[in-house]
């Protein structure tokens, strides 16, 4: 019988598998995807948010625990477990040497990501390189990996893990780590979670999945049915406004449109609906998917003029371009008169001071609702550009309640041999909102923790059996 069974194939699962193997346990990892699609959403990641008290190679200055905590508190609105959040924050300061030992390399932030140069460590080669490094290390250490191995059922004895079933095969293990993601790719579940709005629309029908198609939530649902303790709102997710032309799955980070804070966002009625300049983009980009999801038709339109061009990461698709604002409105399919009134009111309300997109500058609007509190400049210099945006779901926050040992809980009590990591438990830390790189912080911290706990449980059982 295998010591530790790890279900999942992304960052959290691999961290768990590597830690369990390093602790002396035999490990089998089950990845539902084929090899070419291995890694779940981790193939699309770029960086890890890291606490540090002084400069560290690719990280500038300092990013102390309390500042990290305050950043998380702000984006979640307090919907977070402080004990587990601080566990993640502290773990983020000590994991990079371990990551390097397993082949992960880091690089300085590139232009266009400079807001993150102090807080986030970027992976050289991105998520694919990180995954490849971990899989190579796992193979070298003797971790068994099976692809095309979707687990469709879990066998429990009360709150204890007994076995998993893969295509009818029963696989027993002394302990198990669940790290197989949320349910964002399950269209029916997403539709049921979001329901029908007052306009008679089913918002989830217009959602795009930024990552893997394999996160169907099968084991999350199985654990819910088995009585595991659940945390989180099924409608809360890492949800970003992305180009409406993005593919349904796996468009990744390049489909994000990063010029929202430098222009205005309009809904289908050609009206603004939120402060585009509320805070730095890495802290606020992940609110825009949900904001767009609440608009008519689940669509928004980012409009800029020529002034911001070159100040943001270019998206994969070029924007709609027009020499005049009325022409742009027509190309975007928006009511021209309303569009012109909205832009005119915005332009008139702008109070331009010293524009600087790298700081919270003094360019703002007055007498306008909603206000734009930073980086507000008139949209008056052609050519003009527009991007139609849809909600892009990265991962859902509904998950399994856990603790500082990464144990799955049943009726408030931790299981002795069933553990959870990654997106399946991220809702303990992320009740809502997001800030760049924190998903990798959570996955790495709890992946390593779950692997250690699972190995300890398995080896303890083996020692007890031998006695």
UniProtKB/TrEMBL annotation:
Residues 3-429 form the FAD-dependent oxidoreductase 2 FAD-binding domain. It comes from the Bacteria. Keywords: FAD, Flavoprotein, Oxidoreductase. Gene3D superfamilies: FAD/NAD(P)-binding domain, Succinate dehydrogenase/fumarate reductase flavoprotein, catalytic domain. It comes from Caenimonas terrae. The keyword Flavoprotein applies. The keyword Disulfide bond does not apply. Its cofactor is FAD. It holds the Pfam family FAD_binding_2. This is FAD-dependent tricarballylate dehydrogenase TcuA.
């Amino acid at each position: 019988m295998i010591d530790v069974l790890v279900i999942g194939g992304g960052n959290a699962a691999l961290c768990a598998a590597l830690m369990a193997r390093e602790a002396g346990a035999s490990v089998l990892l089950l990845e539902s995807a084929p090899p070419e699609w291995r890694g779940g959403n981790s193939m699309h990641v770029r960086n890890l948010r890291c606490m540090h008290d002084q400069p560290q190679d690719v990280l500038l200055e300092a990013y102390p625990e309390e500042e990290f905590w305050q950043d998380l508190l702000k984006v979640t609105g307090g919907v977070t477990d402080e004990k587990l959040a601080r566990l993640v924050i502290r773990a983020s300061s000590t994991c990079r040497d371990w990551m390097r030992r397993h082949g992960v390399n880091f690089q300085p932030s590139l232009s266009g990501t400079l807001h993150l140069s102090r807080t986030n460590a970027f992976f050289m080669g991105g998520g694919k390189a990180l995954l490849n490094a971990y899989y190579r290390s796992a193979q070298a250490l003797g971790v068994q990996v099976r692809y095309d191995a979707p687990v469709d059922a879990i066998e429990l004895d009360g709150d204890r893990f007994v076995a998993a079933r893969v295509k009818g095969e029963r696989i027993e293990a002394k302990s198990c780590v669940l790290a197989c993601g949320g349910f964002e790719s399950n269209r029916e579940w997403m539709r049921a979670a979001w329901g029908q709005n007052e306009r008679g629309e089913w918002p989830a029908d217009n959602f795009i999945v930024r990552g893997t198609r394999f996160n169907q939530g099968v084991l999350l649902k199985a654990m819910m049915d088995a009585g595991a303790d659940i945390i989180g709102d099924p409608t809360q997710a890492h949800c970003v406004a992305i180009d409406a032309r993005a593919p349904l799955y796996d468009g990744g980070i390049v489909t994000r449109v990063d010029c929202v804070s430098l222009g205005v966002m309009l809904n289908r009625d050609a009206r603004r609906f939120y402060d585009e300049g509320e805070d730095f983009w890495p802290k606020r980009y992940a609110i825009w998917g949900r904001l767009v999801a609440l608009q008519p038709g689940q669509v928004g339109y980012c409009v800029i003029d020529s002034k911001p061009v070159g100040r943001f990461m270019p998206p994969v698709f070029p924007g709609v371009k027009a020499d005049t604002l009325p022409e742009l409105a027509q190309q975007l399919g928006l009511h021209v008169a309303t569009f012109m009134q909205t832009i005119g009111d915005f332009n008139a309300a702008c109070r331009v001071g010293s524009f600087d997109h790298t700081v919270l500058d003094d360019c703002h609007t007055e007498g306008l609702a909603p206000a734009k509190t930073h980086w507000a400049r008139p949209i008056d210099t052609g050519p003009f550009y527009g991007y139609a945006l849809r909600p892009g779901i990265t991962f859902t926050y509904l998950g399994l309640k856990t603790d500082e040992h990464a144990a799955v809980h049943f009726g408030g009590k931790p299981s002795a041999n069933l553990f959870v990591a990654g997106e399946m438990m991220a809702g303990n830390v992320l009740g809502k909102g997001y800030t760049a790189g924190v998903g990798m912080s959570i996955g790495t911290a709890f992946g390593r923790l779950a692997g250690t706990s699972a190995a300890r449980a398995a080896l303890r059982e083996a020692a007890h059996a031998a006695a």
